[in-house]
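BUG: 3D viewer hangs when loading the predicted structure for this chain

Environment: internal workstation, default settings.
Expected: structure renders.
Actual: progress bar stalls at 90%.

Input used:
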Amino acid sequence: MIDTSSIIKKLEKRLTTLSSDIKVQNIGIVEKNSDGIVVASGLSQSFMGEEVYFEKGERGVILNLDEDQASIILLSQGENIKEGDIVKRRSKLLSILASEDLKGRVINPLGEPLDGKPMVQKGESMPLERIAPGVVEREPVSTPLKTGIKAIDSMIPIGRGQRELIIGDRGLGKTAIAIDAILNQKSSKSTGKEVICIYVAISQKQSTVAQIIEKLKEKSAFSYTIVVAANAPDPAALQYLAPYAGVAIGEYFMKKGQDVLIVYDDLTKHAWAYRQISLVLGRPAGREAYSGDIFYLHSRLLERAVKLNKKNGGGSITALPIIETQANDISAYIPTNVISITDGQIYLQPDLFNIGVRPAINVGSSVSRVGGAAQTQAMKSIAGKLRLELAQYRELAVFAQFGSELDEATLSQIEQGKRLTEILKQPQYEPLSEPFEILSIWVVTNGFTSDIPVESIAKFEREYHEYVKNRNPKIIEAISSGEKISEATIKQLQKTTSEFKKIFTA
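Structure tokens produced before the viewer hung:
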């Protein structure tokens, strides 16, 4: 007879010793791999933007979810992935490791080094996709971010936490403006509040990115700059992720109370990469073959540029997105989308570029919707009538072309406009500190150059800066404070300028 009681006791003992640490993992099976997109089944518990990995080491991100399938964009070429391969979830959003060690580095959107140096091992994992800070976490833009470009700082000022679009045709100097803005942040190190700069290259030629890096090193700006590059040969997935990786790194520094300047070069190519991905995913094509969520693509990116209030650390991200237009058409789909999201635009015009006005900024079509509040009192006091005088000159110059007889006052306005246009010209990679920007604008708007030949204005400006710096440095100190220029300083300026002019014209 079987002793059932002893069997039961043995079973009870066995059950009590069994481990309950059972791991359940949701895995999928690859059904299709084509054009950088993998379709997998079985990932029923996955979510959009989740990182996954394959058994042979490749990584991907879920970008489409159907009832029984998930579409995954590959973060590498993925030639080794075959039908039937296993794909596993990571149960987290795609992230990038951010730390102070990234300064002076060149990386791809996955955080992998492109500069031959070791990969950053320590830091905080920052998700590439994140909801932008809410209204209660923000504060109005009130601090200037000086670019060192006279035309911008005087008439289209940018504040920390602003999103200012740089727009124009190819080859007009859009990148040059952005790089000059990065170079000018070198002065922020001496003030005690360093501006961290992030340059995001999207589908750029590798030679172009190499030139920019070399220039940053040459100008001693690379130590506070991070370059995130998804170059032209890279998969569309990396080009799509590049700006989100850049802003994720920026958020790491912003959380620490620091100010960040980020350049997206450019969002037109970013939209092209996303269009390519969307078409391969089989999403319905809308206007210009873009998918319906193209507006959300850039709005969720640019909304992460913000000025946080003191309760949340007081840091900021200032965004300079670049848009390349075709045939000067700013009414195209992508340009109008981005214009509607940003806080203003710097518009570069081919006609100005072709006649030698560089930077070729059309002041009439450019605007800064919030930067005026962040402009220093010193700059505001001398730049007030600059935009008006330039606008009047542009109108009068049209009439002057027809050769009609003009009165003395009109001729005088035209001559003054020529000198204003000349003083706003600026060589590439030579940003000016604000005191010298103010000196240049002040000397022209106050009529000291009315009898100086237009072709001599550039020489006059260079020598004038040196003269004031050497002969009366107290003027530079007074202007550097940012406060409204006092009457005493103006008198000193008038005296010093008159002395210099006698020497220059002798």
